[in-house]
């Protein structure tokens, strides 16, 4: 038993050291979407993301900038259903959360706090405000005020 525990600790230690040497950074997130045009309109008009060149040149894929060289890829090539819950989400931050909420309300886009109370802004224990909304495919998106409590 002691040998197994030592082996597991050794593997986790060497795995950690190796991971620290890989210098991995976040590049993009890809979402499988049912209706590419409807999804693209949501990300352009509601989240106001800038569409960028799809370097793959493949039909059925559109790319959007998340800033700082990070990207969102919408892919309509696969037809398998996607199911997700609120814990599986990506988060965007803004200095203008209150204005963003007003935009959502003007466009009749539903949002909620973490527990799911409609039209409520969540205030985390660290003072960060956040809301949650879903795109046309049901993906959860957090929008918060990180850096702008």
Automatic annotation (TrEMBL):
<protein>
    <submittedName>
        <fullName>VOC family protein</fullName>
    </submittedName>
</protein>
<dbReference type="InterPro" id="IPR004360">
    <property type="entry name" value="Glyas_Fos-R_dOase_dom"/>
</dbReference>
<keyword id="KW-0479">Metal-binding</keyword>
<dbReference type="Pfam" id="PF00903">
    <property type="entry name" value="Glyoxalase"/>
</dbReference>
<dbReference type="InterPro" id="IPR051332">
    <property type="entry name" value="Fosfomycin_Res_Enzymes"/>
</dbReference>
<feature type="domain" description="VOC">
    <location>
        <begin position="25"/>
        <end position="146"/>
    </location>
</feature>
<dbReference type="InterPro" id="IPR037523">
    <property type="entry name" value="VOC_core"/>
</dbReference>
<dbReference type="InterPro" id="IPR029068">
    <property type="entry name" value="Glyas_Bleomycin-R_OHBP_Dase"/>
</dbReference>
<feature type="signal peptide">
    <location>
        <begin position="1"/>
        <end position="19"/>
    </location>
</feature>
<keyword id="KW-0732">Signal</keyword>
<dbReference type="GO" id="GO:0046872">
    <property type="term" value="F:metal ion binding"/>
</dbReference>
């Amino acid at each position: 038993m002691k040998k197994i525990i030592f082996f597991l600790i050794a593997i986790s230690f060497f795995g950690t050291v190796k991971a620290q040497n890989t210098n991995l950074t976040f590049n993009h997130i890809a979402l499988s979407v049912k209706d590419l045009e409807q999804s693209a309109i949501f990300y352009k008009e509601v989240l106001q993301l800038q569409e960028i060149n799809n370097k793959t040149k493949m039909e059925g894929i559109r790319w959007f900038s998340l800033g700082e060289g990070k990207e969102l890829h919408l892919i309509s090539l696969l037809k398998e259903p996607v199911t997700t819950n609120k814990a599986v989400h990506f988060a965007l931050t803004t200095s203008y959360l209150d204005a963003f909420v007003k935009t959502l309300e003007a466009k009749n886009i539903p949002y909620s706090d973490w527990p799911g109370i409609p039209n409520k802004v969540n205030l985390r224990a660290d003072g960060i405000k956040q809301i949650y909304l879903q795109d046309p495919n049901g993906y959860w998106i957090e929008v918060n005020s990180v850096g702008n409590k």
